[in-house]
């Protein structure tokens, strides 16, 4: 496992998501400003389509989530677990910034 | 050998028969009796009171009160399609039309009534119908498809319901009444007059004091109805709704005592002249009275259930002591109510209010001392009904002057005593509802199921809701009218807050009026954010992906990328084709672009072309080419005006009377880009043949030789609804004004995702009220509404053109921030069907058959390519 440099911090707009390739896997990255960076699998486990980065950021009972653009399931940004159906998980990735670069920990 | 259970037979499975079964089960008598229920209709009990809802939904499902499964679960034998033709009261058996014989220990007749068809020559001609069962409605619907004009015979309560149904089917409707006024049983002459004028404003022609003498062949329509005054009316269909008669034929042939003018005679326990035989509902005659409403029928059902229970236990038996026939309803959108002696009586004192400006008439009848309310009639404003009914039923002495009762506002409507009956169908008091709320039932649906309030005719639902709200508030409980967990406001309130306080960003809206989370987040959710975005756009009409104001983060799935997302995550593209008119050059340009990007193309229902399968990163390039070819965005992704469909119109069509296409294009150009609570569709037809199907649109315009007729609040979709005729023979200029006002009023006051149809129905007063606002400027806001629409029209921008001019915006359309790291693309993402590209997702097409077709067509395509 290794940290992959995906982009510069400045190319992550605040309040929305972007998708990035991390060792062949599509990862959705969300920049929530002072609340930090989050990364989960870009593929919506409910449909198998890669688009979670394009979802709307929501706060559901205190938890930060992204709503899938297709059928609006909410996935927790911290854990990737779906609020409506906890058997659906968009697995989370470790993410950090170093010297203005955004790094995501690749999975084996 | 086991002892067999006593047998209970119920003939009739209408509303009252079903209510009796419910009472029986609640007393546990379904366990002690073997119960057989016979219904002659093909389906179990349904709500006959709300019959016209069938046309709103096109389905009988919402009307159903129960199901065969319920009966099975209760252990009751339900025999549908099984009329009972004979009763042997000595042998205690009944015989069905199918010839089967069933014995009974106790028998309940709930055979209801049948529509009275006056004995007029020709009353059995084709398309001469009645209005009582779902089958009758189906026949009316079928007849309406080939009818331009229809007549309802009978101007009573049921007749006006039938007229409403006919209107909804788009048939020019006449009502013919024998008496000199409408609703002669309940209303006095003045009230009848006002009701008549209100209904005529809605486009129904009312003919009073007319007796039909014959129905013969017509010259311009299928029938001609001739009247006693030598006048006549031509019509394609006729619905008889001139009252009901008790269905007592079975009792009659079985030697059960029948009243002189029909009806099965019953005593206070609802027992007939035959031993152990009861009759309940509209077939029963109690003290020479028939009760043609559902509430008294339900009372009889309860009396019989309690009587049967009392025979085998110590439980007390109730008696039927007559019933109040007061009624409140909305006929064709007009409030009508009658309480007690609503037509007055000798020596009565009275107070009367006649407000021509507001279209309200109220009259209260008092006893000769003037202290007690004996009757009331209300037209145009029902809001005092509960209070007056309570006063009438309780016979409390009127405090102060009776005239004050006429002027008291509606705000204390729910200010009833705990013993006051709120739901007369199920005898639910205010106290019952309050107790249920305090016990934890806070939602309408919960109250309906635990108290049964508002589950009969439904007329008391608004009052029940008020009582729920009041009780919650009084108990300091959280009652949440807000759109989501982040706001206690509904969309209308948020709109006003944004407008009055000039709020134009979500963070301010949330901090000032919402509920940021404990951590201070103002993220909101996928309900409040798009709603706020729509409100900001309706008010300011700024670029929806504006970064500075943060609007970009608020947009929902489709608005966020100005495209319609598809199941595989690609987008479809729909450029505007105003009025459905497109030049060959533009068609070619579009075809070339679709071919270059291998987009699946399909003509939409709104007369434009949809191109599917564009990836996120292709959207800007494709739009650049489209804009260069003269196209602009079609807003297919937004809750906004989609299309103005048109027919060919007078420029080419030999029947057209106005230029439908030209007008459709002008309309589309005026209202394009308007963000609204729900998507909007318009259509313009160039003549009454209505080829553009304008009556199924939010705004429908149909040409006449004098101008344009405007229809509003139609829609297709899951619950199709014909638009209501709003105004006739308008000039283009007036039409624009009306549409400006209607749309802005809708944008201002509608709920989130509320279509124009449900919005209009939700307005107190419905269509008539909307007319008063838009045509008569009842609220004095028309110039503001027009100004606001002018602002929207003046600040229109093609969002794609704006987007392409902003490089920072285009970064949003990079699918990946690091595209160079992409793995090799999946070559199997698409398949070809009928020479076009489809996503390779298994449930495309119709299951296995489609997949077989794919293989065959793939071969052909490959061969062609080779």
TrEMBL record, chain A:
Species of origin: Shewanella litoralis
Domain Rieske: 4-104
Iron recorded as keyword: yes
Pfam families, per the entry: Rieske_2 (PF13806)
UniProt cross-references to InterPro entries, sorted A to Z: NirD, Rieske-like_NirD, Rieske_2Fe-2S, Rieske_2Fe-2S_sf
Keywords: 2Fe-2S, Iron, Iron-sulfur, Metal-binding, Nitrate assimilation, Oxidoreductase
Gene3D superfamilies, per database record: Rieske [2Fe-2S] iron-sulphur domain
Xref: SUPFAM superfamilies: ISP domain
Top-level taxonomic group: Bacteria
Name by which UniProt lists this protein: Nitrite reductase small subunit
Alphabetical list of CDD domains matching this protein: Rieske_NirD (cd03529)
Keyword S-adenosyl-L-methionine among record annotations: no
PANTHER family: NITRITE REDUCTASE (NADH) SMALL SUBUNIT, PTHR40562
From TrEMBL, chain B:
UniProt domain BFD-like [2Fe-2S]-binding: residue ranges: 421-469
Annotated metabolic or biological route of this protein: Nitrogen metabolism; nitrate reduction (assimilation)
InterPro entries membership: BFD-like_2Fe2S-bd_dom, BFD-like_2Fe2S-bd_dom_sf, FAD/NAD-bd_sf, FAD/NAD-binding_dom, FAD/NAD-linked_Rdtase_dimer_sf, NasD-like, NiRdtase/SiRdtase_haem-b_fer, Nit/Sulf_reduc_fer-like_dom_sf
Keyword DNA repair found: no
All copies of domain FAD/NAD(P)-binding, residue ranges: 7-293
Cofactor: [4Fe-4S] cluster; [2Fe-2S] cluster; siroheme; FAD
Keyword set, alphabetical order: 2Fe-2S, 4Fe-4S, FAD, Flavoprotein, Heme, Iron, Iron-sulfur, Metal-binding, Nitrate assimilation, Oxidoreductase
Segments forming domain NADH-rubredoxin oxidoreductase C-terminal: 326-390
Residues covered by the Nitrite/sulphite reductase 4Fe-4S domain: 638-763
Pfam families xref list: Fer2_BFD, NIR_SIR, NIR_SIR_ferr, Pyr_redox_2, Rubredoxin_C
The UniProt record lists the keyword Heme: yes
Family of the protein in this entry: Belongs to the nitrite and sulfite reductase 4Fe-4S domain family.
Record NCBIfam families: nitri_red_nirB (TIGR02374), PRK14989.1 (NF011565)
PANTHER family listed in its UniProt record: NITRITE REDUCTASE (NADH) LARGE SUBUNIT
Protein known as: Nitrite reductase large subunit
Species of the source: Shewanella litoralis
């Amino acid at each position: 496992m290794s940290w992959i440099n995906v982009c510069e911090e400045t190319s992550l707009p605040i309040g929305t998501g972007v998708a990035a390739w991390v060792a062949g896997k599509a990862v959705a990255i969300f920049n929530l400003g002072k609340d930090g960076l989050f990364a989960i699998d870009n593929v919506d486990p409910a449909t198998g389509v890669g688009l979670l980065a394009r979802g709307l950021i929501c706060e559901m009972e205190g938890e930060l989530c992204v709503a899938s653009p297709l059928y609006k399931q909410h996935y927790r940004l911290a854990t990737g677990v779906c609020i409506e159906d906890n058997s659906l998980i968009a697995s989370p990735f470790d993410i950090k910034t170093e010297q203005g670069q955004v790094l995501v920990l690749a999975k084996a | 050998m086991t002892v067999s259970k006593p047998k209970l037979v119920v003939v009739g499975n209408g509303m009252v028969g079903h209510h009796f079964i419910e009472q029986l089960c609640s007393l546990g008598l379904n366990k002690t009796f073997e119960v057989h229920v016979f219904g002659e209709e093909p389906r179990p009990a349904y709500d006959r009171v709300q019959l016209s809802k069938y046309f709103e939904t096109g389905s009988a499902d919402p009307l159903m009160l129960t199901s065969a499964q319920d009966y099975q679960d209760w252990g009751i034998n339900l025999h549908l399609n099984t009329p009972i033709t004979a009763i042997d009261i000595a042998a205690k058996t009944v015989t069905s039309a199918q010839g089967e014989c069933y014995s009974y220990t106790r028998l309940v007749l709930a055979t209801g009534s049948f529509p009275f068809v006056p004995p007029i020559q020709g009353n059995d001609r084709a398309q001469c119908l009645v209005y009582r069962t779902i089958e009758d409605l189906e026949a009316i619907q079928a007849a309406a498809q080939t009818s331009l004009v229809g007549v309802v015979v009978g101007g009573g309560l049921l007749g006006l319901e039938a007229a409403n149904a006919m209107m909804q089917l788009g048939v020019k409707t006449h009502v013919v009444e024998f008496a000199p006024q409408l609703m002669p049983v309940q209303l006095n002459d003045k009230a009848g007059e006002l009701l008549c004028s209100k209904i005529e404003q809605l486009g129904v022609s009312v003919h009073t004091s007319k007796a039909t003498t014959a129905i013969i062949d017509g010259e311009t329509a299928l029938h001609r109805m001739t009247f006693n005054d030598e006048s006549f009316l031509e019509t394609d269909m006729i619905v008889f709704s001139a009252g009901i008669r008790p269905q007592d034929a079975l009792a009659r042939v079985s030697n059960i005592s029948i009243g002189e003018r029909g009806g099965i005679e019953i005593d206070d326990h609802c027992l007939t002249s035959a031993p152990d035989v009861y009759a309940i509902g509209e077939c029963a005659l109690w003290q020479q009275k028939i009760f043609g409403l559902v509430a008294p029928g339900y009372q009889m059902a309860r009396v019989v259930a309690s009587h049967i229970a009392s025979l085998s236990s110590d439980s007390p038996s109730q008696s039927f002591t007559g019933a109040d026939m007061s009624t409140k309803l909305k006929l064709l959108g007009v409030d009508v109510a009658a309480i007690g002696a609503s037509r007055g009586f000798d020596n009565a004192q009275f107070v009367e209010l006649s407000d021509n400006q507001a279209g309200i008439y109220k009259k209260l009848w008092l006893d000769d001392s003037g202290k007690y309310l004996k009757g009331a009639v209300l037209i145009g404003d029902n809001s005092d009904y509960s209070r007056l009914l309570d006063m009438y039923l309780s016979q409390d002495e009127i405090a102060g002057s009776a005239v004050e009762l006429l002027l008291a506002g509606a705000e204390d409507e729910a200010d009833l005593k705990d013993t006051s009956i709120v739901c007369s169908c199920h005898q639910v008091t205010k106290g019952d509802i309050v107790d249920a709320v305090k016990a934890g039932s806070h939602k309408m649906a919960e109250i309906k199921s635990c108290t049964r309030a508002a589950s009969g005719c439904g007329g008391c639902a608004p009052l029940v809701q008020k009582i729920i709200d009041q009780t919650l508030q009084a108990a300091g409980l959280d009652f949440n009218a807000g759109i989501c967990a982040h706001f206690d406001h509904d969309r209308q309130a948020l709109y006003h807050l944004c407008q009055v306080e000039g709020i134009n960003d979500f963070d301010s809206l949330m901090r000032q009026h919402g509920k940021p989370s404990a951590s201070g987040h103002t993220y909101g959710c996928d309900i409040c954010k798009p709603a706020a975005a729509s409100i900001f756009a309706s008010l300011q009409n700024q670029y929806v992906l504006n970064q500075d104001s943060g609007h970009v983060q608020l947009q929902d799935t489709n608005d966020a990328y100005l495209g319609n997302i598809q199941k595989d995550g690609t987008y479809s593209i729909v450029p505007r084709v105003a009025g459905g008119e497109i030049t060959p050059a533009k068609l070619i340009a579009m075809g070339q672009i679709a071919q270059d990007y291998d987009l699946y193309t399909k003509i939409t229902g709104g007369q434009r072309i949809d191109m599917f399968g564009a990836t996120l990163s292709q959207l800007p390039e494709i739009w650049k080419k489209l804009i260069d070819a003269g196209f602009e965005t079609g807003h297919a992704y937004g809750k906004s005006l989609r299309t103005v469909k048109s027919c060919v119109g007078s420029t080419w069509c030999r029947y057209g009377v106005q230029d439908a296409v030209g007008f459709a294009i002008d309309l589309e150009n005026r209202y394009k880009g308007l963000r609204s609570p729900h998507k909007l569709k318009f259509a313009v037809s160039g003549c009454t043949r209505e080829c553009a199907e304008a009556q199924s649109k939010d705004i429908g315009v149909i040409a006449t030789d004098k101008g344009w007729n405007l229809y509003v609040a139609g829609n297709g979709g899951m619950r199709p609804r014909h638009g209501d005729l709003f105004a006739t023979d308008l000039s283009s200029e007036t039409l624009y004004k009306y549409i400006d006002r209607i749309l802005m009023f809708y944008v201002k006051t509608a709920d989130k995702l509320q279509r124009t149809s449900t919005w209009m129905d939700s307005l107190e007063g419905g269509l008539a009220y909307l007319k008063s606002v838009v045509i008569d400027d009842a609220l004095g806001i028309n110039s503001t509404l027009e100004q606001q629409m002018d602002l929207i029209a003046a600040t229109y921008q093609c969002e794609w053109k704006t987007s392409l001019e902003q490089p920072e915006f285009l970064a949003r359309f990079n699918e990946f921030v690091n595209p160079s790291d992409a793995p090799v693309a999946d070559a199997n993402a698409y398949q070809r069907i009928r020479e076009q590209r489809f996503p390779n997702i298994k449930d495309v097409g119709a299951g296995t058959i489609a997949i077989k077709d794919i293989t065959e067509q793939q071969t052909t395509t490959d061969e062609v390519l080779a």
